[in-house]
Amino acid sequence: MIFPAMPGTDRDSEARPSDDYEVTLALHGAMAGLVGAVVTIVWAATGAGSFWPMWAWLGLLVTLAVHALGRHLVDTLEGRLRPFVFHVEVTVVVCAFEIVIWAMSGGGYFWPIWPIVGLGSLLAVHWMVLNRGWLPTRRERQLTERVDQLTRTRRGALDVQAAELRRIERDLHDGAQARLVALSMQLGRAEERLEDQPEVAELVRAARGEAGAAIKELRDLARGIAPPVLADRGLVAAVEALGQRSAVPVTVEARIERRLPPVVETAAYFVVAEALTNVAKHAPSAGARVVLAERDDRLVVEVADDGPGGAALDSSDDARAAGSSTGLAGLRNRVEALDGELRVTSPEGVGTAVRAELPCR
Questions:
Q1: Does residue 121 carry a pLDDT above 90?
Q2: Measured in whole angstroms, how far is the alpha carbon of residue 324 from the centre of its chain?
Q3: Distance between CA atoms of 235 and 358, rounded to whole angstroms?
Q4: What 3-state DSSP class applies to 294?
Q5: Which whole number is the average pLDDT over 203-220?
Q6: CA-to-CA distance for 258 and 339, rounded, in angstroms?
Q7: What is the DSSP string of 73-117?
């Protein structure tokens, strides 16, 4: 038969851990008292000299005190400090009993100082490990090593990709583009020799126009991969060439004294190119200023204009996917792939500033 619970009680909490601890502590105390009594009776029955059972009583009291401290710990503490507090309590009990033993054995040289120092050192190590200030956990070390490995492999993959893109650009420039230029010149000569055949000359003229369009598209493609001036003369010269070709007035300030990794130079070049394109498109009457500087192993690229402002960098996931190769979203993806950061500041009526920071180690 099941009886209803009495008011103020909870059937789910009838079996409480604290009750179990009280029972076990009581049993421990009873067993310790029984063992101590038996030892004392044996001593009395043998009638032997000094009261040696005091050492047995002392050991039994130590174990009982540790048990009681454990019960107190379970009842009152939670979280990661529980083991440390228990360690402190056990250390205090053990040190106290060692001092008692020293006093009961007649005093003299204070030998408990050495176990006290040892136990205190263990307690200090426990505290440092608990706070993780000096000794990281195994999981943290594994994660740190994994992040370092991924960073190295990603940087290596990006360097290989940059080198491969530059090789493709060279092949296009020296191979297909050169052949198309030669073909266009031959078509021009053929057109001159076909003046007496206007219909054929018109076909050759059309073919020459298509060849010229193909050359332009190929040059644009090669420039989009990596401009030759970037590989030959470096980032500063490539950015100055961009400024000279820009539809708006551009001033370039460069404080870079060395060649940077190819993948970093390529990313910085396209940041400047896209920013200048946006200035020419949205603020054609404005001027632009480009700053290149290396600070604390980071390349800072800033393009600012004095246009109307109001531009924004969409940081949504959809914009990341849609702008994966072009526009400011594409630049952000390119910069973040190098563990860099891209920011756009564009207050109304003040102008727009595009700032990128790229690690160049």
A1: no
A2: 22
A3: 13
A4: strand
A5: 81
A6: 21
A7: HHHH--STHHHHHHHHHHHHHHHHHHHHHHHHTT--S-TTHHHHH
Among the residue ranges 19-28, 209-218, 227-236, the one predicted with the least confidence is 19-28
Q: Quick one: 220 and 239 in the same domain?
A: no
Question: CATH number for the domain including 303?
Answer: 3.30.565.10
Looking only at the bridges linking them, the beta strands covering 341-345 and 298-305 are unpaired
pLDDT digits (tens, 9 = 90+) for 291-341: 999 988 899 999 999 888 877 765 554 444 444 445 778 788 888 888 889
Q: Report the domain count for the chain.
A: 3
**10 falls within a domain:** no
Q: pLDDT per residue over 249-292, tens digit each? A: 999 999 888 888 888 888 899 899 889 988 988 888 889 999 99
By CB atoms closer than 10 A (0-12, 13-18, 19+), residue 60 is buried
Is 220 part of any domain? Answer: yes
Provide the token pair at 193.
């020799």
Count of H helices and E strands in the chain? 12, 5
| Same domain (yes/no): 55, 121 | yes
pLDDT at 70 (0 to 100): 65
Tokens read off for 33 = 């008292």
Cβ count near 199 (within 10 Å): 7
Asked if residue 62 lies in contact with residue 93, where contact means CB atoms within 8 angstroms, the answer is: yes
- The answer to whether residues 237 and 220 belong to one domain is no
Can you tell me the distance from the alpha carbon of 151 to that of 143, in angstroms, rounded to the nearest whole number?
Answer: 12
What single letter denotes the amino acid at residue 76?
T
Q: What does the block give as tokens for 313?
A: 């960098």
**Residue 105 belongs to what domain range?**
16-131
